[in-house]
Amino acid sequence: MIRFAAEQWLMLLWAVPLAALIAAYAIAQRRSAAHRFVAAGMLPRVSQGRSLARLVIKSLLVILAIAAVAVALARPQWGTKPESSIAKGRDVCFIIDVSKSMLAEDLAPTRLDRAKLWVRDALRVIKGDRIALVAFAGESVVKCPLTIDYGFFRTSLTDLSTTSVVRGGTNIGDAIRVACKEVFEETDASFKDIILITDGEDHESFPIQAAEAAAEQGVRIIALGIGDEGVGRPIPITDSRGRRTNLTYNGEVVLSKLDADTLEKVARASLNGKYFNVSTGNIELDSVYAKLIQEAEQRETRAAEAVRYEDRFQIFLAIALALLTMEALVRERGKSA
């Protein structure tokens, strides 16, 4: 079975009939010019040895060479060669806070939007790792199980919003427990990481104890604390009429700020955890990922049999070269000329 690796080049085959028309027109014009500028009696002597058939053959050889080059550029392939591929990596679960406090604008445009942007940056360097996504607020939901389908993960990340979880609040401990129980395989002794992105305002879910339990399972927690640590920021919301207001509780505006102390304790309680106090600044999560995860100990995540198709474009390039060589050897006039 023939397949083409760059089939868009087959569009060049449309040039074949165009070249045939141009060749036919050129031959006709040459014959017409000969009749106009050579006297009728002299025409047989001037055109002695010149063959119309030879002109047609030369043109046909060039046209076929163009067709062969077009096919070669399309990279025809047939025949297969099995190849074994082994990937190494780690299991990484991104846990992202989607509570309403993540709508605060001390990180533009919002804390949540900035978190999603950082994770997209990390996706550019991820190769071989299985990744998952957990969204949490008052409850935790697995939005993407462990997968190497990074396109599906990206779609799940894009869809993330403060409506991804029904119940409000911020229960960091529950999110860690869900990742350990529902995402990671308990049989794996290590090679597991959690990247936690939140402002750290926990509502009595015992996150430090959850991190200690995760450490017993071989899970490392890399925590990113985002939001203003010193000044509480209002949480903008939009009502049913599209009016922009700030979230209130018992008539007072709710202010949200980073709880760095809790997040640092969570990271330290895990296995060789790491805390980054991003606050209202920026972090290159792709660089962090490359240094802390890709340089860490890896395990074989999968072994697969791949099929590689054999390129055969060389055959058609050789045909084109042979045709052009033949065209050069064909004379317009016979030996008697």
Structure characteristics:
elongated, 15 strands, single chain, 26% strand, 337 residues, three-stranded antiparallel sheet, six-stranded mixed sheet, 10 helices, alpha/beta
Describe the structure in your own words:
This protein has 337 residues and is α/β, with parallel strands linked by helices. Helices cover 38% and strands 26% of the residues. It contains 10 helices and 15 strands. It has helices spanning 15-37, 43-46, 52-73, 111-123, 150-158, 172-183, 207-216, 260-269, 285-292, 313-329; strands at residues 3-4, 76-89, 91-97, 130-136, 140-147, 192-198, 219-226, 233-234, 236-238, 244-246, 248-249, 252-253, 255-256, 274-279, 299-311. The protein has a 6-stranded mixed β-sheet with strand order 5-4-3-6-7-14, sandwiched between helices. The chain has a 3-stranded antiparallel β-sheet with strand order 1-2-15. Strands 8-13 form a two-stranded antiparallel sheet. A hairpin with a 5-residue loop joins strand 9 (236-238) and strand 10. The radius of gyration is 35 Å and the shape is elongated.
Distance between the termini: 49 Å
Please identify the structural class as seen in this structure.
alpha/beta
User: pLDDT average, as an integer?
Assistant: 87
The radius of gyration over CA amounts to: 35 Å
What sequence of helices (H) and strands (E) makes up the elements? EHHHEEHEEHHEHEEEEEEEHEHEH
Strand content: 25-35%
Which word captures the global form?
Answer: elongated
Spatial sequence of strands, sheet with the most strands: 5-4-3-6-7-14
Number of helices: 10
Low-confidence stretches: none
Helix content: 25-40%
**How would you characterize the largest beta sheet?**
6 strands, mixed
- DSSP summary, beta strand count: 15
